[in-house]
Amino acid sequence: MTAGAERAVLPGRGDLIRIVPLYVPEETVRPLEGVAPAVSPHLSYRGGPLLANVEVFTVFWGAAWQDAPLSDLATKINGFFDFVLTSALMDQLAEYSTDRVTIGHGQRVGTVTIASPKLGRIVTDQAIQHTLQQEIATNAAFPRPSSNMLYFIYLPPGVAVAQGGSRSCQAFCGYHDTINGQMFYAAMPYPGCAGCLGGLATFDALTSTSSHELCEAVADPIPGQG
Length: 226
Known about the structure:
This protein is of the alpha/beta class. It has helices spanning 26-29, 70-84, 88-93, 125-138, 194-197, 202-219; strands at 19-21, 55-61, 107-114, 122-124, 149-154, 160-163, 166-167, 172-179, 183-188. It has one domain (50-219): Collagenase (Catalytic Domain) (3-Layer(aba) Sandwich).
């Protein structure tokens, strides 16, 4: 994981439990002189599921991922997961273990590139969910959902994601969610804007967002219940 610019959270910007918000320069959200900083929130477990040994399956949606330079980027993203899922980052997540579930290392269990359905300029979260369910049902390359399975879905340049009344590169850079509480996924729009690049190279911006959603999905796969 590459260290990069901090992402500051602006008040009132959508559902901050599941999303990676846009990068905001630190100086624009620095507390005013004489104003006390916000109190750090107290974390509590709400009894929902955790991903004890996460199994990541990467999905690269769009024909553009079949050719360089995006095919090379996909290979690097898979290499990132191969490293990070057995790294100290996962060891740090062990602090979110419970009496019933111990969070440990994970693994990447596969990858696939799909060219259809063909993407337009905007894809909705509903369409992402539908496509994921259809591919799992009809495409043997997709593993079945399980209590540890996490599908990471990457979109190509020029395709925005609409979710919860918001749009990628306008309100968020990525998010994770669930389908019926039994299928867990993360949506990764291509970071084609300054707000999602945050001064980083494309690969570093994608792995920054990916690691953020990986951690959140492991500890809170059904947003708000972990």
